[in-house]
Amino acid sequence: xxxxxxxxxxxxxxxxxxxxxxxxxxxxxxxxxxxxxxxxxxxxxxxxxxxxxxxxxxxxxxxxxxxxxxxxxxxxxxxxxxxxxxxxxxxxxxxxxxxxxxxxxxxxxxxxxxxxxxxxxxxxxxxxxxxxxxxxxxxxxxxxxxxxxxxxxxxxxxxxxxxxxxxxxxxxxxxxxxxxxxxxxxxxxxxxxxxxxxxxxxxxxxxxxxxxxxxxxxxxxxxxxxxxxxxxxxxxxxxxxxxxxxxxxxxxxxxxxxxxxxxxxxxxxxxxxxxxxxxxxxxxxxxxxxxxxxxxxxxxxxxxxxxxxxxxxxxxxxxxxxxxxxxxxxxxxx
Length: 334
Ligand code: AMP
Ligand code: TRP
Hints:
- There is one protein chain.
- By secondary structure, this protein is mainly α.
- Helix content is 54%, strand content 7%.
- The chain has helices at residues 19-32, 44-47, 54-70, 88-97, 102-106, 109-118, 125-139, 153-170, 215-223, 241-254, 258-264, 270-297, 299-328, and strands at 5-10, 37-42, 79-82, 145-148, 178-181.
- The strands form two sheets. It has a three-stranded parallel β-sheet. A two-stranded parallel ribbon has the order 4-5.
- Helix 8 links the parallel strand 4 (145-148) and strand 5.
- Helix 4 (88-97) packs across helix 7 (125-139), helix 4 (88-97) packs parallel to helix 13 and helix 10 (241-254) packs across helix 12.
- The longest helix has 30 residues, at 299-328.
- The mean pLDDT is 96.
- Tryptophan is lined by residues 7-11, 43, 46, 134, 137-138, 146, 148, 152.
């Protein structure tokens, strides 16, 4: 049976992924790779839209790929590669930019937020065309489903619009993808500021649990996480954002129901609860961290795996690109 195709990716924007990336993205990707023909990329071309030190970007790209594998994305089953290794991404992005409206791209809220924050002169054109490159990522692989966080929903809408527009103008070429928006319960908040989403780019490190941190450091951060003065372990997002966030992490990593965890800690203090959570986090992270560090110890082997996967990706991507060029009327080299 042919499996439907799935595509997702993350920017190599930090040395380590944080627990929100792990629970909100990697755990789902790992699960979905059974029922889908899955493609997962490290989107380094997208990362160029932010200021980067070249050597650091290279290191972060390898580190991100290593963490995908360490978290259970299998490069022999799924196609796990670095976006810039497949040149068709940049090429299709150009072609798609010619059917994207200037106003349409200007309505993307992520672009509007960023350009408002930095000002027009400090905003590069790459930020403006970022969603077009993302559409190219997805459409090159005739993708059926795209699991993403809800902040990416608008970009997937644009991707669908571009696919439909191209198909109606030039003939059926692209599969129109469907977004799979991450469950609300998979959203993780900052441990120190539990109403803000945990992020790789958080201002303070104290509220972020890094996948590659020493386990003892993560345990300490959990013990210091912000709670409240009620002293009861129960889920209530509004009144108890700190405790609720810890419960969500506990449930996601242990595979248990929140109610069962509440029962276990009934009549006990936050200290006990945090100690229990620290154990769960450390036992989940420790093997992932060790696998990632081992992979990063042998970059030649990691690079070989990435090259092999990029080769697989390119053979699919180049077929789509060639159809696109043909249909748009570019004279093909004989
Ligand atoms: P980012 O690090 O923002 O590029 O996100 C990469 C992926 O991780 C996306 O699929 C996000 O939805 C997911 N992600 C990032 N931060 C969180 C979070 N705090 N909670 C849940 N998922 C997250
Ligand atoms: N823009 C996405 C994010 O910030 C990353 C991304 C790039 C992506 N290309 C993609 C996600 C294709 C899914 C499919 O999270």
